[in-house]
Amino acid sequence: MNNPLFEALFATGAAGATALEAEDRGYSYAELDQETARYANALSELDVQPGDRVAVQAAKSTANLIAYLAIVRAGAAIVPLNTAYTLAELDYFIADAEPSLIIVDPERDPGIAARAPRVRIATPATLSALARGASPAFETAPRAESDLAALCYTSGTTGRSKGAMLTHGALTANARALVAAWRFTPADILIHALPIFHVHGLFIATHVPLMAGASILLQPRFDAGAVIAAMDRASVLMGVPTFYVRLLAQEGLTREAAAGMRLFVSGSAPLLASTHEAFAARTGKAILERYGMSETLMNTSNPYAGRRVAGSVGSPLPGVELRVVDDAGNLAPAGVAGAVEIKGGNGFGGYWRAPDKTRAAFTADGWFRTGDVGHLDAEGYLHLAGRASDLIISGGLNVYPAEVEAAIDAVSGVIESAVIGLPNADLGEAVTAVVVAEEGEGRPSEARIVTEISERLAAFKRPKRVIFVDALPRNAMGKVEKARLRRTCAPGN
Ligand code: MCA
Fold first, then answer.
1. Residue 413 CA to its chain's centroid (Å)
2. Which three-class secondary structure state does DSSP give residue 177?
3. What angle do CA 223, 430, 204 make, to 5 degrees?
4. Which of 21, 184, 210, 212 is the most exposed place for a label (fewest CB within 10 A)?
5. What is the rounded CA–CA span in Å between residue 200 and residue 239?
6. C-alpha distances in Å from residue 121, one per residue of 43, 440, 472
7. Which residue, judged by its Cα, is nearest atom 53 of ligand 1?
């Protein structure tokens, strides 16, 4: 194959079948092919070469999804960036990824231009104007399976974010496994309400339907009412648990409304068994929970046919090996929790320009350490119990306490802080800051802390609540006891 990922995405769809549809317009597979060619020509005009990185921080739209497909077609790798990232956060990604082009919304353009004067910048409007004038033919850039198709930043528990290198081979193999596991066919219409700056929305919810020759119904953002309205003509929804919690809060979510839907998938954060059960009671449909990571893509899935177990993420997908080990690296027996490790064709190519971090992420015998803790049951279903790190998952977005703590500690009057996730009905976990502050005039208020850190951190990382304490609980080693804080600060205590 010449360009494994791009060709796989267009191998099945009938020329006249709808590939992508949004409020503004729809594209058949033939039209989408031509549009990606125009956009790939536009990228060439902006001097993007095969092997380059193209960073994208832009609102969700058909044009920006097409731009992504064109980046793959042009042989470059996308660096997707959360639209909530501040300019201060972007500095690091731009310096580390060294993109040859950044596609950003116009309000961000001057700020980035001032901070990264040597990087070429295009707004989506510039790109689409170039594409409109470009040829609808483009010779797809040849790529090898081992070539980079994406660089996805995942924050480290300590230190800076790491760029997970995702290859053509890994992305293609994983999407192919999911098409089969979830029984996608050209008749499917997927409601796409996820953001397109993460693996879930950009790859899983895009590659799987396209590879199957199905249609994507693109919604600009998650809106529970709009999702329910789309159910009468769609067949699949992929979401994070917060989607399902918010859908359940709508009276319009009924058995009749969901009758035509054949599959509801949940991932990116733990789905509470109570949400699974409430959804099944209301709609008659069992949400299919699966488990993935930016590095490894999708690892496990509950079965399409067969028992979907609430509170379990299912068993390894074909081509994925999974094991649970104890501290000494020995296999844990069924029912006993340990560290979850992964090996397989979905494995990533390491961390960008960080050989030490890559080495540390793998065991001596080549298994990827996920950092998650869980156990396999007697039927081989994986049950995740938590994480080895203090990572917080809020509404499906990862928040690393160390980064938020550093920002809070820099606020004048703060002595020290600990950031934890507390149970939250809507977001799963809510970012919460526990702060020790100076007494007297310099004592910062909750409002001042939140305002000051907002200049540095994306809004979703901001604490939803700040709790002031006299001292943080520490163990004999001097380490803050976060588990204890989670207990003492839990709602109701
Ligand atoms: C928005 N806000 C949040 C979050 N999202 N706060 C905490 N956690 C969040 N996830 C804040 C905004 O900053 C804003 O704050 C206020 O909430 C309202 O913003 P809005 O944009 O209206 O929020 P929303 O539309 O209600 O968004 C909530 C959401 C969204 C629908 C849950 O966050 C979402 O689509 N999440 C999915 C994330 C995702 O795709 N994750 C996959 C990554 P203020 O009012 O103060 O300004 S993980 C992955 O890819 C792995 C591989 C996997 O396995 O899938």
1. 35
2. helix
3. 50
4. 21
5. 8
6. 11, 47, 45
7. 268
pTM, full prediction = 0.96
Say if CB 418 and CB 473 are below 8 A apart.
no
Dihedral of alpha carbons 260, 266, 272, 273, sign: positive
Query: How many beta carbons lie within 10 A of that of residue 98, not counting itself?
Result: 15
CA of 386 to the centre of ligand 1 (A): 21
* Cα–Cα dist 424/110, whole Å: 37
Q: How many whole angstroms from 459 Cα to the centroid of ligand 1?
A: 9
Q: How many CB atoms lie within 10 A of CB 135?
A: 11
Residue-level pLDDT at 390? 86
pLDDT of residue 124: 97
What pLDDT does residue 461 have? Answer: 96
CA–CA separation, 284 and 286 (whole Å): 7
Q: Are strands 101-104 and 53-57 parallel, antiparallel or unpaired?
A: parallel
Distance between CA atoms of residues 74 and 97, nearest Å? 18
**Cα angle: 105, vertex 107, 109; to 5 degrees:** 70
Among protein residues, the one with the nearest Cα to ligand 1's atom 47 is 459
- What are the pocket residues of ligand 1 if the criterion is a CB atom closer than 6 Å to any ligand atom? 84, 194-195, 198-201, 221-222, 240, 242, 267-268, 292-294, 394-397, 427, 459-460
CB neighbour burial string for 24-55, b if at least 16 within 10 angstroms, e if fewer: eebbbbbbbbbbbbbbbbbbbebebeeebbbb
d(CA 88, CA 452): 13
Angle at 172 between CA 166 and CA 175, to 5 degrees: 105
At 386 the pLDDT is 79
Q: What is the DSSP letter of 81?
A: -
User: 135 alpha carbon to ligand 1 midpoint, in Å?
Assistant: 37
Residue to mutate (ligand 1; options 83, 204, 348, 397; most atoms within 8 A of CB): 397
In this structure, the residue with its CA closest to atom 38 of ligand 1 is 396
DSSP conformational letter for 203: I
Å from CA of 399 to ligand 1 middle: 11
State which residues of the chain have pLDDT below 70: 1, 156-159, 345-347, 493
Q: Residue 388: what pLDDT?
A: 75
**Position in ligand 1 atom list of the atom nearest CA 292:** 54
